[in-house]
Amino acid sequence: MPLTNLPTNPISRLRDDRIALFRLSEEVMAHRPFKKPVFMKLNSLGNYQARSAWEALEYLDMHWPHEHSARYIRAKRLCQDAIDGLIRPEVARAAVVEAARDAGLLEKGWLPNADGSLSGYRAVNQNAKHVAA
C-alpha cells in the first residue's frame, strides 16, 4: 500500500475500530433490556436500577452486600447466560428478583431521599458520545 493511503493517525483508527466492535458486541449480546427494570438497595446511595442482564450482573459482582447464597449464584449464572445469548433476559431477571427478594434487597422503585427527592445509581454507558460544553 502506498504511503499516501495510510491513515494520518493509525492508533486513532485502531481505537475507533475497537470501540465500534465493542459497541456491536454490546448490542448483540448484553443490552437486550429487561421488560421492566429491577430496583435493589445500594447502601447509603439509595438504590440501583438494573435494566438488563449486564447491569444486573454488575450489581451482583460489585454491590451485593450479603453472602453468596444458592439463589445469588443462580442469578449470576443466568445473567451471564443471558449476556451470552443462551437464554432470554426475562429468565435472568426473574432469578435476580428472586435472589434480591430472598436477601431483603428488592425495591419497588426509586427510594425517596430525606427531602423527598429521588436519586439512585444506574450503570452508565461508558461508550456514549459526550458533547463538550
Task: Give me some keywords for this one.
globular, alpha+beta, single chain, 133 residues, 4-stranded mixed β-sheet
Architecture overview:
This protein is of the alpha+beta class and 133 residues long. The chain has a domain at 33-114. The chain has 4 helices and 4 strands, in the order H-E-E-H-H-H-E-E. The longest helix has 21 residues, at 10-30. The chain is globular, with a radius of gyration of 19 Å. The model is unreliable at 124-128 (pLDDT under 50).
Ordered list of secondary-structure elements with their pairings:
Blueprint: H1 10-30, E1 33-42, E2 46-52, H2 53-62, H3 70-83, H4 89-103, E3 106-107, E4 121-122
Parallel strand pairs: 2-4
Antiparallel strand pairs: 1-2, 1-3
Helix pairs in contact: 2-3, 3-4
The portion of residues assigned to helices is 40-55%
Mind summarizing the main beta sheet? Answer: 4 strands, mixed
Amino-to-carboxy terminus distance: 40 Å
Q: Counting H and I runs of at least 4 residues, what is the number of helices?
A: 4
What are the low-pLDDT stretches, counting only 5+ consecutive residues below 50?
Answer: 124-128
Please indicate the percent range of residues in DSSP E strands (runs of 2 or more). 15-25%
Which sequence of strands runs across the widest sheet?
Answer: 3-1-2-4
Please give the radius of gyration in angstroms.
19 Å
Structural class of the helices, strands and pairings? alpha+beta
- The averaged pLDDT comes out at 77
Shape: globular
Extended strand count: 4
Name the helix and strand elements from N-terminus to C-terminus, one letter apiece.
HEEHHHEE
